[in-house]
Amino acid sequence: MARRRLSRTLKRLREDRRYTINQVQRAMEWSTSKVVRIESGAVGITVNDLRVLLAYYGLHDDETVEALLHLSRASKRHHWAAQYRPVLPAAYIDFLGYEMEATLGSYWEPLFIPTLLQTEEYAEVLIKATAAQHLPMPEVEARVRLNNERQRRVLTPERAGATRIIIDESALVRCVGDEDVMRRQFAHLDVMIERTRAEIVVAPLAVGAHLGLDSSFSILEHAASDDPDMVHRHGGPQDALEVEDPRVVQQHKETFDGLASAAIRGDNVRRLLVRPGQ
């Protein structure tokens, strides 16, 4: 989150001064791609480089400069999921960092039980089945551990009340693993609905076609005005495409709210969690 705040601020400073990227590139003796990547948040900027850049922009207010230097230092700190970078896409790791900064998280999943609600064995089967190529077992186990850690962090009593999860009814029909895996997964879902403060509901098949039918998405909302709300569209169980465009974010909010208003709740959800033979 610190890197995103800093990159947006630096882009705004450049644009306010009507400097082009090429002018900054020449003045700083950087490559054009370096300026672009800093302003997009793809890479960070060192404290020394930042001091020189701010001086070039004519920013000399000590308090403002120190605040931006603090963001540069903070952006170098690794968040809790950084250790999993060798086995997961960078976009998904970044998403997990943004998630912990959000004041409200809204999650939609049309195909599977959402990651935040999966049992270990359900997650293992799903990770193996959806991988584009064979994954070594240590990598599968690392991804399952990450799922568990994420659940513990997001669904704490303090944070769970700011978490909304909608599961498509088709995800409850699709068998992932064998019937024993599904029975235990449904039992876990039942416990989560009963005990957690998160809002967990099911969108019925009758809602028809909508914006989220082709992929899952997560909406992360922030209280701070300089941290825009964002939507992450997930191309797979552990991948993410970040979008901050206000129009796109609003479209997804409206889709989520529409699904929530039509959702199955409470005891009616529990009735859907009875597997054959139970």
Automatic annotation (TrEMBL):
Residues 10-64 form the HTH cro/C1-type domain. GO terms for molecular function: DNA binding. InterPro entries: Cro/C1-type_HTH, DUF5753, Lambda_DNA-bd_dom_sf. Pfam families: DUF5753, HTH_31. Transmembrane segments: none annotated. Gene3D superfamilies: lambda repressor-like DNA-binding domains. This is Helix-turn-helix protein. It comes from Micromonospora pisi. The lineage of its organism: Bacteria, Bacillati, Actinomycetota, Actinomycetes, Micromonosporales.
